[in-house]
Amino acid sequence: MAQPNQQPLEALADSAPAPQSASSSILSDLLPSQKRINIFAGFTRDVSSVLSRLESTSENTTLLAPLNTVLSSLPRKPWESPADYDKLGANAYSGSEGSERAAENLKRFTEAHVVCERPWEEGKKVKTLGGGEVWWETHGEEGERRIMPGKVEVEGVVGKAGNGEVWMLRGVVDFRQ
């Protein structure tokens, strides 16, 4: 027999929180589940300007995330610069000044992969968080999306959240613009 102050089960079901949908999640929550881009996802957590953008519910973003295999095959790490080695030699990243240089290089690389817009229409030139200009075009009979300049192939959209999308790349955006 029901107690007088108990609620029927239907009333409890109505008050239960709704499951998290793409529109209520944010990009920073989405990234940890994407194993093929987890190296780049780690970079986004190390750069405060990028992390703030991915956590923002008031700014839409398209994140251009290179595959782990792409990052692993780069001739140097994203925080390394040939100019730093030319100027400072093998110790370019030693000590606190070296750490600061590496952090600034990583910031430049990561911000170049953050498009400050979503939705992002084909052919529309937009600024990245790092200040560069990019756009995308469709190429080939199979309609491959490519980030321009550089014709960086988009493998696909791997996640959507209320504040943006994650596009997985088979290359890196030129961050030296």
Question: Which properties best describe this structure?
Answer:
FAS1 domain; FAS1_domain; FAS1 domain-containing protein; Mug57-like
Q: How many separate helices?
A: 7
What's the CATH H-level homologous superfamily of the domain at 21-74 and 113-169? FAS1 domain
What oligomeric arrangement do these chains adopt? single chain
Work out the radius of gyration. Answer: 21 Å
| CATH architectural grouping of the domain at 21-74 and 113-169 | Roll
The share of residues in helices is: 25-40%
Could you tell me the strand content as a percent range? Answer: 15-25%
The SSE order reads HHHHEHHHEEEEEE
CATH class of the domain at 21-74 and 113-169: Mainly Beta
Biggest sheet strand order reads 2-1-7-6-5-4-3
Find the structural class using helix and strand composition: alpha+beta
Region (Disordered): 1-27
Keywords: Signal
Protein name: FAS1 domain-containing protein
Biased composition (Low complexity): 11-27
Structure overview:
It comes from Cryoendolithus antarcticus. Keywords: Signal. Helices cover 32% and strands 21% of the residues. The protein is an alpha+beta fold and 177 residues long. It has a domain at 21-74 and 113-169: FAS1 domain.
